[in-house]
Design a protein that fits this description.
Two copies of one chain form a homodimer.
Chain A lengths: L1 E6 L4 H11 L4 E4 L11 E5 L14 E4 L5 H5 L9 E2 L4 H19 L2 H10 L14 E5 L3 H12 L3 E6 L9 E4 H10 L3 E4 L13 H6 L4 E5 L8 H9 L3 E6 L12 H4 L3 E3 L9 H16 L15
Parallel strand pairs in A: 1-2, 1-3, 3-4, 4-5, 6-7, 6-9, 7-8, 9-10, 10-11, 11-12
Chain lengths: 309, 309
């Protein structure tokens, strides 16, 4: 099995070494040193450049080194007809969930105010609710969304999810489709976006959504920068419709130094760190995928191109 | 049953109304309007002034409206021989636990750095551990300490407690006594102080303790300001022995505007809000205590004066 490896990350060599150690029987070639591109079976990539797929006439699988495939789906170089598989790393999902938990605690315990008061040397107490009285709405009910919903629920929050379509109702209530979105938003004091980026979800954190939330709500975005309509967010914050936001993702990244988000008193900017990939579990997953592929078994988490994730 | 009520809080009337509504058969008198002090059976107090107990010759119980009785124990006016009962409010314990959880997340997920980077418009990612690799040590294994330990453990942290004496080993390991303190500290990347303030624990967050922690540890104090040796804390932070601190309590309060703690880049000051009392559950507890007392049953959580809590 010939695998062309590429990542835009700076620690590509570390990943490559771990992959080689975990699966000595697979030939990993560090792109662009892949020899004859026509001999490549699988491309293992993150944010591949336009020219990567050139000449890969035998390519049978693209395994992405991340949970989101939006950048690849938008790319003009995406090879037609070749299945694309996402990376589902339980540690990364848990990390995303922790980010959401931190955001919920920061908001409901008024730590956003205390962080600001500390800057201004102000000693002032604020009352707060307890988690059972804090409704959290998680946009997204996939692997990551459900992990976050479960963690928030286990910490006492009143949690619901929103998904594209109806699912098996587990211990967490799921609102489904555009019809149920207003009701879902109306109950969400804290809104956490963990959606895939698709044509349907682009800009979902916009004017209409903010207006449908309870007044004084808090928004957490750990999905994609393109989910947010930034002018609408700033307007909702300044009008008091939103009480705060914690944003991990931006379009483009890094967030420009002149962006008003950096210094807005009600916004916490973090540098795309909500779900940093975990080497060991990611490598384990990828090697399992490649072995499945090599032995003709079904590869997991294949992207449905028409829905975009 | 005649109860003299006093609190230094601004919302004493709200408490009094709730107490009267919950127990119409008990006579609550708002000090100093208690009539003949010799007819008072129980004093229900928080930070009572020197003159409160004057003339209360029939006093049989002091029920404190808080978990900590250190201020009362130090007071010269404490009536000799009268039992003192602490308030144990499960909601307050849970709130303290949430404060500790927020502190642990803030530290291990590097949010302290991101809060600072946001001030400076710096986009820089930092790697982080996952909770199973983050050892948290909780000083105190009473109601509050154990609630915090359980919440931290349920969120995946590697938790141990430290107590004055050996207890039944439950699912959380407990180190006991001065002999086991160094071993406990050596394993605590995050140290959470939830101890009662006594002669033994005063200044426990001092030079010796900080030196025994792993280098780069993080200290959370939600107990009493007198637990901290502030110059030793600042020295340990500036020397890099400690990587940060989150402090909720100070001596005296409010923390003076000129305190270096306010503006220290590695310190988050909060205004004594880790465990704000919850009216409904506190009133329920107090009424239960008073009814037990009235019917001759054992009152719970009586302070042992010689140990100080």
């Amino acid at each position: 099995l010939n695998v062309a490896f590429h990542t835009a990350w700076t620690n590509g060599e570390v990943w490559l070494a771990a992959l080689r150690a975990a699966a000595p029987e697979i030939e990993f070639r560090h792109w662009p040193d892949v020899g004859d591109p026509a001999t490549v079976d699988v491309a293992l990539v993150w944010n591949p450049p336009r020219e990567l797929f050139g000449g890969m006439s035998r390519l049978k699988l693209v395994q992405v080194l991340g949970a989101g495939v939006d950048a690849l789906m938008r790319s003009e170089v995406l090879p037609a007809g070749v299945p694309i598989a996402r990376l589902v790393d339980p540690v990364m999902s848990q990390r995303m969930a922790e980010y959401a938990l931190y955001g919920a605690l920061r908001f409901h315990r008024q730590f956003d105010r205390y962080e600001a008061q500390r800057q201004a040397t102000v000693w002032q107490r604020h009352d707060h609710l307890d988690p059972p009285d804090v409704s959290v709405g998680v946009l997204g009910a996939g692997e990551i969304g459900m992990t976050a919903a479960r963690l928030l629920q286990s910490n006492g929050y009143d949690v619901a999810c929103w998904a594209r379509s109806v699912r098996d109702p587990g211990p967490i209530s799921v609102f489904a489709g555009r019809e149920q979105l207003p009701a879902f938003l109306a109950r969400s004091r804290v809104l956490v976006c963990l959606l895939p980026l698709t044509a349907e979800t682009r800009g979902i954190l916009g004017r209409e959504t903010f207006a449908a939330l309870p007044r004084g709500a808090f928004v957490i975005n750990a999905a994609r920068g393109e989910h947010v309509d930034v002018p609408a967010l700033l307007e909702a914050l300044d009008a008091g419709q939103l009480d705060g936001a914690m944003l991990d993702v931006f379009a483009p990244e890094p967030l420009a130094a002149e962006s008003p988000l950096w210094r807005h008193p009600k916004v916490l900017v973090t540098p795309h760190v909500a779900g940093i990939s975990h080497l060991a579990t990611s490598v384990e997953y990828v090697v399992d995928q490649l072995r499945r592929f090599g032995s003709g078994e079904a590869v997991r988490n294949i992207v449905e191109r028409e829905r975009g994730y």
